[in-house]
Specification:
The protein is α/β, with parallel strands linked by helices. It is built from 24 helices and 15 strands. The protein is globular, with a radius of gyration of 23 Å.
């Protein structure tokens, strides 16, 4: 027996056609629900991947029929799906807690998954922390039929290393960007758009392109410690675009209250996936905006996730990669080392030889399972981008959309649109390094005239009182050269980050806990989110 636990609400809809039932969240740009059901009526496993891959949009859906049950998430896993087997029966839901809470669910913990979450904030692959709870990966299908099931990865984000003249690619990226936004706006039917605006490239791109194509029903907001550089720049951008802007001040007092509130506890339950820690940035701000009725009830949030990643901002340095060696063993080591150093470093004391060995084996196992052609001209940065995309980005970063859903709002992610994915897949690495193609396009096109004279990510230290304190504390470290510089980074992160964090996410931890854990070399607020996660679900609970 197969049981689908999804209920219709403001995000999930239920449709029927003949003997087929579809539970759908999101939308398609390329076809209607009826057209999709018609195409899948006589489903064949060899063709289903091609049909699903052709769908353009942000979606998750489950299709039930007398012959099969089909589970699908989009190319970026914008809305996850889960399933479990209990006494030979299959249960499916988008809220995994509904599955875990079933009477006969086996709550045996996957110890390796727990280590992965502890070190990075997310699991690797399709695993959750429970051995009997399964998640769909980005770009994956699961088909149940004849008492069996099969997983099919219909899409892989894997750079193809095609080449072309940079100037031509700049023009193409500009055209793709405008096409993506026009397509998105067409489906919103004039609804109010809300943009969390910062001093960076990605949210500015969203706001400036909307203005460029003539969209006026837009509001922007920023938040954090009063006087922070992100808000100052965002205000300038909004004023120049002619969009209404509001600043939401955060303080240690206000955020401590929120992170101990019933709302926050409900959110943790609502957003739980058992495969990553929650994404909490800006959560209290949305509640504030709703309470003051600054946004429409049907407003749609549009953010800049994840322009920095897709344009090459996270990929390892090419010169360092080349110096590491060109043989396959060197490339494999460079890939796994780069991922671990970048994302599996939430706690310094957990980076033991044993843990690192396990993580490396699991990361490489995921590459093998993906059926990437490793006999071809594969570079380690290609493997890096694939790995981060299917794990960290799709599980943790994109889960930030749950913050909008929790407060009853839809969202759009234009920088994860299919056209964007396909464009960036073909861009050679030398144009991705330091995001040079992306940045050059933004400066050249200068959408809505907010790119050439307004600084991007110009960092300043907030609050001002910490500037002289930081200066005095840094002096002794300067006596030890490069080693002292590295030591200072660790000290600053552990001793001062709580006060310098303008987003106030560190208030979810508390200063006492931060001081107590200083010797464990925590990285940022996600370190403690991972620690709380592991404590909550460990066998010793």
């Amino acid at each position: 027996m197969i049981s689908v636990g999804i209920k219709s609400d403001n995000l999930w809809k239920k449709y029927r056609k003949d003997d087929m039932t579809i539970y759908l969240k999101g939308k398609f740009y390329s076809c209607t629900v009826n057209e999709l059901l018609l195409r899948l009526k006589n489903i064949e496993r060899d063709s289903v991947a091609e049909i699903i891959c052709s769908l353009d949009g942000s979606f998750s859906f489950v299709i039930e029929s007398s012959e099969f049950c089909l589970l699908v998430v989009d190319k970026v896993r914008s809305s996850p799906l889960f399933f479990t087997e209990i006494n030979e029966d299959i249960f499916i839901d988008h809220h995994p807690r509904n599955l875990v809470n079933k009477k006969k669910f086996n709550k045996e913990i996957n110890a390796n998954s727990m280590i992965e979450v502890f070190m990075s904030g997310y699991t690797i692959g399709s695993k959750t922390i429970y051995k009997n709870l399964h998640s769909l990966r980005a770009g994956e299908i699961v088909i149940f039929s004849n008492n069996n099931y099969k997983r099919i990865q219909y899409y892989k984000y894997f750079n193809q290393l095609n080449h072309g003249a940079k100037e031509n690619l700049i023009e193409e990226l500009s055209e793709v960007t405008i096409n993506v936004f026009k397509k998105m706006i067409k489906g919103l039917n004039g609804r109010q758009i809300i943009i969390p605006l910062s001093a960076g490239n990605d949210s500015r791109l969203v706001a400036s392109v909307l203005k460029y194509i003539g969209v006026e029903n837009v509001k922007c907001y920023s938040y954090g410690t009063p006087g922070n550089h992100e808000a100052k720049i965002a205000e300038i951008i909004s004023r120049k675009l002619g969009y209404q802007w509001i600043f939401v001040p955060l303080s240690h007092k206000s955020e401590k209250e929120y992170y101990t509130s019933k709302d926050y506890k409900k959110f943790l339950d609502f957003s739980e996936t058992f495969s990553s820690v929650p994404f909490i940035q800006g959560l209290s701000t949305i509640k504030y905006l709703k309470e003051m009725r600054w946004i429409d009830d049907d407003a749609v949030f549009i953010n800049g996730n994840s322009g920095d990643f897709i344009s090459g901002g996270h990929a390892p340095n090419l010169e360092i990669e080349l110096s590491a060696g060109n043989d396959f063993k060197c490339k494999k080591e460079f890939f796994t080392d780069s991922i671990i150093n970048k994302h599996f470093s939430l706690w310094g004391h957990l980076k033991t030889k044993e843990n690192i060995k396990k993580i490396k084996e699991t990361l490489w196992g995921e590459i093998i399972d993906s059926h990437i052609d490793l006999n071809g001209p594969v570079e380690s940065h290609q493997l890096y981008e694939y790995s981060e995309f299917i794990d960290r980005q799709s599980k943790y970063v994109i889960s930030g959309q749950r913050t909008y859903e929790f407060y009853g709002h839809e969202w759009r992610m234009p920088l994860w649109d299919d056209e964007y994915l396909y464009f960036w897949q073909k861009i050679p690495y030398q144009y991705k390094e330091n995001q040079n193609l992306y940045k050059d396009m933004l400066k050249k096109k200068n959408f809505a005239n907010v790119w050439r004279n307004i600084p991007v990510n110009k960092k300043t230290i907030t609050p001002k009182w910490i500037i002289p304190v930081r200066f005095l504390l840094k002096i002794p470290f300067g006596l030890f050269g490069k080693r002292g510089g590295e030591a200072w980074k660790g000290f600053e992160r552990g001793a001062l980050y709580y006060w310098m964090d303008v987003t106030h996410m560190m208030d979810s931890v508390g200063i006492k806990r931060i001081a107590r854990d200083f010797y464990k070399s925590p990285r940022h607020h996600v370190s403690w989110l991972s620690s709380k996660f592991v404590s909550k679900y460990s066998d010793n609970e």
